[in-house]
Please model this.
Amino acid sequence: MKINPVVLIVSSAFGDGHAKTAQALQQSFMARGVEQVYIVDLFAEVHPFLNAVSRTFYLKSTAYAPGLYGMLYDMTSRMKPGQPLSRFLHSMGKRKVEEVLKRLKPDVIIHTFPYLAASELSEKVGMQVPIFTVLTDYVLHGRWIHPSTWKYFAPSDSVKEALLASGVPPQAITVSGIPIREAFQKIPDRTELLRKHGLNASRRYILLSAGAYGVLGNVQRIIRTILEQSEFDVIVLCGNNHKLRLNLERRHQWNDRVHIQGYTDQIHELMSLSSGLLTKAGAITLTEAFSQSLPVIVYRPLPGQEKGNARSLSGQKAIYTAYNEKQLADYLHQLQIKSGQEEVELSMHALSRKESSQVIVSEVLDALEAAYDRQMVSEPH
Model:
């Protein structure tokens, strides 16, 4: 195997999860001594204008027209890689993708986002670069699948079953879980963290996360339900939604049960201090919560992959999903008295694979070594 292979991880700024997964993999590669690991938002690099428009549509539609986004998601979810629409989506900017590949000269390509132009290119020009895909949702969408993919790393057995049903051979699938950052594998000192975040050891907290871009709806109503229907205090993460943060700070500036924050990279610390997480159904945040054995309530999941995540994980009894305020109040009560959570905790443990990054990196490096050995044998001496 090449002593220090060049690793290209294809990520995206659509949501925050793809980037977090890429960062977790980068950390694991570097821990194994692989220094040339590049995280590239490939779609943004080859199509900056279209990427900006698509990202704006994604954020606006999930906030103001979730039904439209859900409809488009469902329409494309069963795409086959050979269909014209699929080939078109994966071929956009292929010439610029080829330029990126020539510049970086990767020995391996790992997708954490389903823009598979590199896969499409490899099929056309016969590239020998191994291509891997790390799925970052608990539900399968057709855009993840491509015949040039060497191996799929699935988050759960249910996604593995969906891949098999889509024609992916079993030897091309590893159930690895979703990679999360190293910070979630450490057990912080609770007393020190309470002091750091200005929280009271005698109180219990619900962590309310509106997502990286603050698009969870009805945040003020959710806060009111928590305060009126439970004894929990609430820590509110507004993400990058500065308007939401300022509005909530103004409303709750005199209420010592409400703690407002913007975007934070210390969510692992706040999770470890909380009795429950109330959030949207982003797969990475849910996986992070599973690693902390933190009970999760998803409130009114958005159509599309988040609704799919919520349906799949609720079916596995790993999370609670509330569709109205009464259900939300009931689940808050369950968290408060800790009744009947044993089954949920077992399901969370089953989905939490803290060594996910290491498993993926080991398989990728082993595949590279095997490919290198085959190349050495086939070359004339």
